TrEMBL record:
Entry keywords, A to Z: DNA-binding, Transcription, Transcription regulation
Domain HTH lysR-type stretches: 1-59
Protein name: LysR family transcriptional regulator
UniProt similarity note: Belongs to the LysR transcriptional regulatory family.
Species of provenance: Mycetohabitans endofungorum
Entry GO MF terms: DNA-binding transcription factor activity; sequence-specific DNA binding
Sequence ranges of Low complexity compositional bias: 317-330
UniProt lineage: Bacteria, Pseudomonadati, Pseudomonadota, Betaproteobacteria, Burkholderiales
Gene3D superfamilies: 3.40.190.290, Winged helix-like DNA-binding domain superfamily/Winged helix DNA-binding domain
Disordered: region residues: 311-385
Example GO BP: DNA-templated transcription
UniProt superkingdom: Bacteria
Length: 385
């Protein structure tokens, strides 16, 4: 039998821990896979795998052979890919995996521009909210959102960092007030991810650099940030949401930032791909395209491509300004008819907010009465909206 093919089959069986899975992945019968491994063991004169009816494990010789075989096969594939990449345009199906909400809000513009540059590549996108084994499931590229991710078989490259914003609707703030310290969240209705996502404790860093740890009082829990966003927009409580999800809501005043002087840990947004020295052209070009896209997109404009949080000057619920990493001020988009509110109702809401020391972004203010100065000179002062 083909020595290299037997080596490939053995590595696949060892990686997946199953003859049946290896056979399915390599489009072979179980008998052919078994014969390849048996032929390899016969040629080497030693057993590489311990087999029982319920488990499969490497012998000491099998472990040594696996490490060297994997290196040899990787180097062979790298050489072949290097030669092919020098003479061929990216072609074929590109399997991409990403978290559901991030993918819905961020990937379409990237895929659109990539497809225009490389029309021979067919992106095949899978959006899931679970842990993915990229090697076993056959994905070429993945977007991973996590603080710390390590894997020997996968390369991680940071695209950007996501910031988490504490926010609520103006109506909720007018009714319940705005928290001034993280501890105040204990007195509010909070909307959160399940504890197995980020734990049940939130760690804020205050203006003095000191950590403040709180366990908010959750009234609703959901395993999807888009669901939490919708619940927040309906006025159900205070939510901690990623910047790429609520930029437009912040810019148009539907959500207001709370606790602007306190910051939650940022989360790395990474691109992941199976470890290879020479990547297939379709993978290499997509990674480069993704990195270029995110390097030109401020954190505040992720998702809706809209200013609203970290990058733009947005007023928080306490009247202070948000951070200004990049001053981006696009013209407001026209509102959908369902979003229009009666002006009198809005003015009434704004008065309630001002009574609580809060200024809603976009609120109208009447000119101040003229001030009289000596010599009958008259000056008119307008307060900024």
């Amino acid at each position: 039998m083909d020595h290299l093919q037997s080596m490939r089959v053995f590595v696949k069986v060892a990686d997946l821990g199953s003859f049946a899975k290896a056979a399915s992945m390599m489009d072979m019968s179980n008998a052919v896979v078994t014969r390849h491994v048996a032929d390899l063991e016969s040629r080497l004169g030693t057993r590489l795998l311990n087999r029982t009816t319920r488990s499969l494990s490497l012998t000491e010789s099998g472990q040594v052979y696996l490490e060297r075989a994997r290196q040899i096969l990787d180097e062979l594939e790298d050489v072949e890919q290097m030669v092919v990449a020098r003479n061929h345009e990216p072609v074929g199906t590109l399997r991409i995996v990403a978290p559901v909400v991030f993918g819905l809000h961020n990937l379409a513009p990237v895929l659109h521009s990539y497809a225009q540059r490389f029309p021979q590549v067919v992106p095949n996108v899978t959006l899931v909210d679970r842990e993915v084994d990229m090697v076993e499931e056959g994905f070429d590229v993945g977007v991973v959102i996590a603080r710390n991710v390590r894997s020997a078989s996968v390369v991680m490259r940071r695209l950007t960092t996501g910031c988490i914003t504490v926010c609520a609707t103006p109506e909720y703030i007018a009714k319940h007030g705005a928290p001034q310290r993280p501890e105040d969240l204990l007195e509010h209705h909070c909307l959160s991810l399940p504890a197995d996502y980020w734990g049940d404790e939130r760690v804020f860093t205050g203006p003095d650099g000191q950590e403040v740890r709180v366990r908010p009082t959750n009234v609703m829990i959901a395993n999807n940030t888009e669901m939490l966003r919708q619940l927040a927009l309906l006025g159900n409580g205070i939510a901690l949401l990623p910047s790429y999800l609520i930029g437009r809501d912040m810019a148009e005043g539907r959500l207001m930032r709370l606790l602007p002087q306190y910051h939650l840990p940022r989360v790395d947004i990474n691109i992941a791909y199976p470890s290879r020295h020479y990547l297939p052209a379709k993978v290499r070009t997509f990674i480069d395209h993704l990195v270029e896209h995110f390097s030109q997109t401020p954190n505040s404009m992720l998702g809706e491509q809209w200013s609203g949080i970290d990058g733009a000057h947005t007023k928080a619920a306490d009247g202070s300004m948000g951070s200004a990493d990049a001053a981006v001020h696009p013209a407001p988009a026209p509102r959908h008819p369902e979003q229009e509110r009666d002006e009198g109702e809005l003015d009434q809401l704004d008065e309630q907010l001002r009574a609580n020391g809060i200024e809603r972004k976009g609120a109208r203010r009447a000119p101040a009465a003229p001030r009289r100065y000596p010599g009958n000179a008259e000056r008119r002062t307008y307060e900024p909206a």
